[in-house]
Amino acid sequence: MALSGEESGADGAAKTKYDPEFTDRVIAATGPKAHPRLKEIMPSLLRHLHGFARDVDLTIAELMIGIEMINEAGRMSTDKRNETGMLCDILGLETLADEISSKLLFDSGSFEAATPSTVLGPFYRPNAPLIPYGGSIIYAAPDSPLVPPSGEMVDAPVGEGGERFDGEAGRRRRADANGLYEQQDVAQPDMNLRGRLQTDETGRYAVYCVRPSAYGIPPDGPSGRLLELLDRHPYRPAHIHFVVTAPGFRALTTQVFDREDEHILDDTVFAVKDELLVSFEPREGDDKARWTVEYDFALSEA
């Protein structure tokens, strides 16, 4: 069967019904002083992009709808919400790029035993408050059980010494129990449930937070509307974000996920990895918290 945008010749071979030389002319327009990486990737991008348009018989009206979706995502994006990044997330593009980046590092021999990475997500904010070891990132009265995540930072591979490091352990954030980050919820104070965590002298970290809940991609933007048009649910399983840094090591962007969450197998941004599942265990002897979770991070040398 011929693809849409193609017609079959007398010999049965597929023959394009559109200008067969057009894409090559666009590729050839790249000049000799083009950026080396762009010069490498643009031919593939253009062939796939033009091939898609031919395959589906893309019309001008449909193209304008797509352009407006991207434009709206750009207009909505701020330093508190990356709507364009959210579009990439629900299309699986950020997760795929994360897989490719990790595979390239693994093949280079520099990422062999490190904790798996995953997506940064659209709600990251820099410059969160500095939190000492054992401190709290709750800046408002919680409406969900408290939980102190803890663990340690080790260099990879752990089996070769497990050397600890101190300094800034990571930047951490999570949605509140109502499924909203603080920039989405006027009832929460600025930077609620975010912090830059410091390790102790042995490389361990500990912090009080709120047990996370699942949350949905906001329905008020193009990402949410696209999910609705695709008959897809908007939910991400409960998770905690970490960006883990230390001098001499590669920064790690990752998340840990509540293995009991109902959406653990159908994350709408496809970012869950088995190695990042955690269990929230009952905590005893601490009147500040009902649950605890342990997770150790391993970093690879830069």
From TrEMBL:
UniProt-listed PANTHER family: DIOXYGENASE, PUTATIVE (AFU_ORTHOLOGUE AFUA_2G02910)-RELATED, INTRADIOL RING-CLEAVAGE DIOXYGENASES DOMAIN-CONTAINING PROTEIN-RELATED
Listed GO biological process terms: catechol-containing compound metabolic process
The organism of origin for this protein: Daldinia eschscholtzii
Source superkingdom: Eukaryota
Protein name: Catechol 1,2-dioxygenase
Chain coiled-coil ranges: none
Pfam families xref list: Dioxygenase_C, Dioxygenase_N
Keywords: Dioxygenase, Iron, Metal-binding, Oxidoreductase
Domain Catechol dioxygenase N-terminal: 36-102
Single GO MF descriptor: ferric iron binding
Domain Intradiol ring-cleavage dioxygenases: 174-299
Similarity comment: Belongs to the intradiol ring-cleavage dioxygenase family.
CC cofactor: Fe(3+)
